[in-house]
């Protein structure tokens, strides 16, 4: 993806992070190699639906603009951040940002109520776009995740929908997904190579394609439900039957994942090549809110009340607390620009900056004036940065010369 340069995160009040590449373990994308359950979910039913959709779903979408709200000038918040005026209703939930690999200033912002906005100036201004196929079934889709490799891009959403472009978003094609897909797609990662992508659901299913979504291979051979039922007596506090869903999912550049359980009482990790997710105990009695990866490939995790911890990538080591005065507001996301510079955001306009790799944090006091919870950060290799917040709040990092 041409978007973010730290870990990919799905924190929906969980983008990718570093440039997204294929998993370290090579996965061949052939339906014949899928386990029976995965093949049933993504092979024959998907092809049947594709034939029904036909050429009518080869879209000429992104060019048609919705009626726009009155535009206003962006408002400077501090020396580093400005508040971007967006042509959307305030009740739209912003969910992800991605930029194409061919133009660092050309990107898309998406969210609930089928929201899709496009920019050509690095996110200073945005214009609404529509995707006709997203309206064919009468659903009000929530676009969860977007990712680009060059001009090839992918969007996933809920109810289950997969959109694909090969021309930088000038047109989008609706790709078929089976009704038996386990869970709703919450994260998509454009991998290196034409037609290559990885899709993750909120029930821990991970599928990979190398031929433009015609066939998929299951990367995880056991469902999260099956894993929890198998390890119920292994000492994982809070794990119980039928809790196989995630509230947040994050992916690093190597294709490894960390995810927070829907109740926030334990977390799970997965490394490319493993057959199932591995559950872990949380470091305190406080509810987990989000998790992701640091530049040195450790895991960061945040708990209710504003606590931040670090642990090694296995999730099994000792948890080290970070120095952050959160004032009791929950920290909802952390992302890094490079090995030293990073930002954290959270409730009631909480915005923090670190210049020592996350060991200590300083509050951006100007953000305290925002009447919004800030829940996701995204940074691009070109130096662009964004913060997503409720009530349609978008902060843009002002790139310093």
TrEMBL record:
Annotated keywords: Chloroplast, Photosynthesis, Photosystem II, Plastid
Location(s) in or outside the cell: Plastid, Chloroplast
Protein name: Photosystem II stability/assembly factor
GO cellular component: chloroplast; photosystem II
Free-text function comment from the UniProt entry: Essential for photosystem II (PSII) biogenesis.
Recorded family membership: Belongs to the Ycf48 family.
GO BP: any one term: photosynthesis
Repeat as UniProt keyword: no
PANTHER family tied to this protein: PHOTOSYSTEM II STABILITY/ASSEMBLY FACTOR HCF136, CHLOROPLASTIC, PHOTOSYSTEM II STABILITY_ASSEMBLY FACTOR HCF136, CHLOROPLASTIC
InterPro entries reported for this sequence: PSII_CF48-like_dom (IPR028203), TAT_signal (IPR006311), WD40/YVTN_repeat-like_dom_sf (IPR015943), Ycf48/Hcf136 (IPR016705)
UniProt-listed PROSITE patterns: TAT
All copies of domain Photosynthesis system II assembly factor Ycf48/Hcf136-like, residue ranges: 77-396
Domain of life: Eukaryota
């Amino acid at each position: 993806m041409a978007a973010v340069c730290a870990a990919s995160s799905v924190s929906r009040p969980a983008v990718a992070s570093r440039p997204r590449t294929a998993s370290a373990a090579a996965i061949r994308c052939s339906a014949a190699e899928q386990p029976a359950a995965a093949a049933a979910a993504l092979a024959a039913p998907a092809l049947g639906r594709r034939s029904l959709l036909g050429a009518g779903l080869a879209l000429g979408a992104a060019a048609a603009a919705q009626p726009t709200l009155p535009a206003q000038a962006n408002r400077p918040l501090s020396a580093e951040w400005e508040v971007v005026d967006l042509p959307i209703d305030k009740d739209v939930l912003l969910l992800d940002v991605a930029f194409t690999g061919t133009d660092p200033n050309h990107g898309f912002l998406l969210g609930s109520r089928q929201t899709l906005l496009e920019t050509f100036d690095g996110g200073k201004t945005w214009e609404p776009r529509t995707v006709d196929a997203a309206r064919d079934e009468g659903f009000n889709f929530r676009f969860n995740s977007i990712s680009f490799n060059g001009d090839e891009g992918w969007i996933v959403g809920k109810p289950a929908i997969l959109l694909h472009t090969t021309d930088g978003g000038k047109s989008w094609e609706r790709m078929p997904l089976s009704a038996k897909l386990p869970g709703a797609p919450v994260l998509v990662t454009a991998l290196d190579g034409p037609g290559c992508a990885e899709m993750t659901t909120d029930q821990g299913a991970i599928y990979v394609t190398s031929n433009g979504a015609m066939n998929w291979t299951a990367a995880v051979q056991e469902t999260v439900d099956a894993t929890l039922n198998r390890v119920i007596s292994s000492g994982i506090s809070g794990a119980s039957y039928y809790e196989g869903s995630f509230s947040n999912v994050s992916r690093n550049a190597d294709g490894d994942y960390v995810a927070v359980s829907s109740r926030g009482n334990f977390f799970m990790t997965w490394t490319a090549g493993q057959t199932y997710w591995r559950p872990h105990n949380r470091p305190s009695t406080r509810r987990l809110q989000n998790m992701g990866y640091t530049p040195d490939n450790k895991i960061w995790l945040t708990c209710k009340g504003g606590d931040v911890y670090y642990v090694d990538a296995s999730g099994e080591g000792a948890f080290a607390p970070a120095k952050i005065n959160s004032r009791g507001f929950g920290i909802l996301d952390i992302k890094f620009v490079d090995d030293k510079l990073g930002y954290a955001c959270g409730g009631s306009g909480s915005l923090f900056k670190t210049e020592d790799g996350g060991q200590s944090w300083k509050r951006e006091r100007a953000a305290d004036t925002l009447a919004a919870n800030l829940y996701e950060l995204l940074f691009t290799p070109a130096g662009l940065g964004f913060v997503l917040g409720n009530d349609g709040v978008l902060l843009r990092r002002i790139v310093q010369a």
